[in-house]
Amino acid sequence: MNAGTSYDYTIYFVNVPANKLELWFWMESDRLLNPVFREFYSEREVVHEERRMRTDSTPTGKFQEQFDALFWQSSPYSWPVVGWPSDLEGITREEALEFFGLYYAPNNLTAALVGDFDPAEAKALAEQYFGRLRQGDRAAPQPRTREMPQLGEKRMTAYAETNPAVTIRYHGVPDGHVDEPALVVLGQILSGRTGRLYKALVEEQEVATNASGGQAGYKFEGMFVLRGTAKEGRTPEEVEQALYAEIERLKTEPVSARELQKVKNQNAASNFRALRANFALMNQLLVREAYRGWETINTDPALYDAVTIEDITRVVNTYFEPENRAVAVYYRQESDEAPDPRLAGLDAQERQQVGQMMAMMQEMDAEQLGQFVAQIEQMGAQAPPENQDMVQAVLEIVQERLAAAGGGR
């Protein structure tokens, strides 16, 4: 049981045994029919802590948030999904109830069931339990403000405890636009170990350790993103220029028929695999319904398969211009603190994960730290050998904090 929120939707999901279908219908419908925000203020603090852990305490979290606000001039997508700190500190229970009444009304909800059940029985249960819900007084409002055309390149320079890197965004198209299939296929041509960017920047020029690109189409706006991380001894500027060079090459040198067909074959295989797992299928249906309708799961593959070489050349020449982009350049800023010797053997991703856990520990009292020790010990018993160094480092740090808090053992 969990949930996830993006810009355009929130999804709640739960796995239940097939013989507990009616129990789920009863519980879920009652949660919607009789909401009780009894622990609203404590839960608000939980969300605030999630923001601190995922944004404030990560090396580039705040910078990425500012880059969003820089890139989107007028669109509501400039707001972070989790909210700004002042949003989280100021929202009241009454405002939350008002939001719930508007967006959690049955005329704004979609349910997807995937698994072993009888469709006729499920429909009858839906009528019995969800039929109790009252229609909302009004439809959820749609955003009116759209992104203004960008007239000049935007740039952001940031210093963080991260590897030197560059992110380039071009304003593009939303989900369902006629050019989206070509942009999606272009991203697949550029990305992956066999993609153009990895071959050019990592293997041939040796300026980067990774490089990728891809289309991100939301419900109302869209963008195409290029990324690259500089190799030791190389600069983000070199990576940036190498990314531009690959785009410029695409403007005058069409992709080969073999290259295009390879991506289409990979798409077909990926689409098939995504239909085999219950969770992946459920998630696809709900996200698509939030955008253009769940039926697009059947109709979109043909659109991608119909993309031509000429389509790729056209979209590259249409959207990839300097005045249409925003660039974020990251330089490494070493921490003023002496490096913790317990983290010396960890890679960058593991050190970041440990940093997030350390930020969480700062908010814990002795009892919570004791419980956290037990969780880490359990994690260590299940973690693979390559992660044992990270688990041991976290265990030593949390035990040290516990002892300082007067709850050592």
CATH class category name of the largest domain: Alpha Beta
Number of domain units: 3
User: CATH superfamily of the largest domain, called what?
Assistant: Metalloenzyme, LuxS/M16 peptidase-like
SS summary, helix count: 16
Q: What does the radius of gyration come to?
A: 24 Å
Share of helix, binned: 40-55%
Task: State the secondary-structure class.
Answer: alpha+beta
Sketch the topology as an H/E string, one letter per element: EEHHHHHHEEHHEEHHHHHEHHH
What summary fits the major beta sheet?
5 strands, mixed
Would you give the CATH topology of the largest domain?
Answer: Cytochrome Bc1 Complex, Chain A, domain 1
Q: How far apart are the termini?
A: 34 Å
Shape: globular
Q: Numbering strands along the chain, what is their spatial order in the largest sheet? A: 3-7-4-6-5
CATH hierarchy: architecture of the largest domain: 2-Layer Sandwich
Average per-residue pLDDT, rounded, comes to 91
Give the percentage of residues in beta strands: 5-15%
Oligomer: single chain
